[in-house]
């Protein structure tokens, strides 16, 4: 008990030195907490924005089946059914998936490829509920979505390739459809295709009651992997196909944000560590004669080292509390002042534990060398020190 009291007494004996140490470390901790809150909030907000509406994953049949043939029409824009894509799923599975806890929305889609007469260019046609196009990440750039069975929308690439726009007609398997909108997904293949109602494509391909895939939106995007496992366990005939390209781009962007914030925090931590090291070395130098006296009355090297390390760790713990308060307060102030709009601060136990862990590491590393140096002082030489 007396040993702990001695450590506390040493800390507050030189208040200016202790204040500088507290200030240096608390700035580093405040940087970790503040930037962590903002970057985690930015990551969550960006992920929410990027995945708003779009499906988190797509379910397809665990087994694969072949497609069916068709025939084309006479004009240049007429397309003939070429083949169905992938295996088929009973359409009732869509309702089954919707009932699973954690599923926010789901829609069945039928996909088939067609060839434009004369050019032999394959065009993808996707049948899907027109009110759930957002799950396919399709954005209408001109016109509107289809509302009847004889209406379609075409992609921006298909519009240019076929020289078609809103108001024109398109013949698919001897059926005429009116183009009511042009969409864009950012995917070259999908933008070269056509969206129509599910029932229309099912009629054309003689696939009534079946779909090629089920697009699923999770209540919590970050928990989509667990949701996939739950669905696949309940319905082994379904398997997941994530859009790895888009997920990869999004993850890379989010990782860049987190890495940048962590790099800035690390710089602040390094500066704080140097401050701790300098202040503790200065403390040992100033107390050389005192340490010499302690060793001359029987203090062991281990006891001297423990005292210096203890002072460093206690200063760091106090600084971490101050740093947490400063970091949270500063970011809350920025948020209230609307200087960081559209970013919802992300408080997490992991962030605070990381900040405290870094602070303790700083205290130990910053005090280790000064403690070792103090423990190696010779009592005779220390007492001669001026």
From TrEMBL:
It is found in: Cell membrane. Its main location: membrane. It is a multi-pass membrane protein. One of its GO terms (molecular function) is transmembrane transporter activity. The chain crosses the membrane at residues 20-38, 260-285, 306-331, 351-372. InterPro entries: ABC3_permease_C, MacB_PCD, Macrolide_Exporter_MacB. It comes from the Archaea. It holds the Pfam family MacB_PCD. Residues 18-233 form the MacB-like periplasmic core domain. Residues 63-89 are annotated as: Disordered. The keyword Transferase does not apply. GO terms for cellular component: plasma membrane. The keyword GTP-binding does not apply. Keywords: Cell membrane, Membrane, Transmembrane, Transmembrane helix. Coiled coil: none annotated. Residues 78-89 have a biased composition (Polar residues). Belongs to the ABC-4 integral membrane protein family. PANTHER family: ABC TRANSPORTER PERMEASE YTRF, MEMBRANE COMPONENT OF TRANSPORTER-RELATED. This is ABC3 transporter permease protein domain-containing protein. The lineage of its organism: Archaea, Methanobacteriati, Methanobacteriota, Methanomada group, Methanobacteria.
